[in-house]
Design goal:
It is a single chain. The chain is of the alpha+beta class and 142 residues long. It has 2 helices and 9 strands; from the N terminus they run βαβαβββββββ. Strands 3-4-5-6-7 form a 5-stranded antiparallel β-sheet. The longest helix has 17 residues.
């Protein structure tokens, strides 16, 4: 499966289209597509001079920054093992590992929690959820 989406509302460059999707929305879309076993194709439309608009560059940089920290839970993963999606979480997996992406509200800033399950322990990657038992390699169990 491939999901083709735009960074704003236009498939081609449109100087009047300033309705840019937030970095948080684009990252959530990436997680959602990956959790379903898909590839996320994000359209970037350069202007007539071949320049990529600054808002595109900013959002692509934010996605790249997020992937530097959390890319293991996206790159090379397959769809999560569960038949039904949860509105507050998505899952991706690799052999022996389950990655959980938990959303808090509509915004993602400080609200994605990324876990890795290595049966039988849960490894903490980012922003622990208080009601779960997490193990962080540098902090012990929380």
């Amino acid at each position: 499966m491939e999901a083709c989406m735009t960074i704003n509302d236009s498939w081609g460059y449109n100087s009047a289209d300033h309705n840019w999707k937030s970095s948080e929305t684009l990252i959530r879309n990436l997680i959602d597509v990956a959790s379903k076993g898909g590839n996320y194709l994000l359209n970037v439309a350069p202007n007539a001079l071949g320049e990529v608009p600054a808002p595109c560059i900013e959002r692509l940089q934010a996605i790249g920054d997020w992937l530097l920290v959390n890319g293991e839970a996206i790159y090379g993963t397959t769809a999560g093992p569960f038949e039904h999606q949860l509105h507050w979480a998505r899952f991706t997996q690799k052999p022996g590992k389950l990655y959980t992406h938990v959303f808090s509200g509509r915004r993602m800033v400080s609200s994605i929690y990324l876990c890795q399950v290595l049966l039988p322990k849960l490894i903490f990657y980012q922003n622990p959820v208080s009601h779960c038992l997490f193990h962080h390699p540098h902090q012990g169990y929380n």
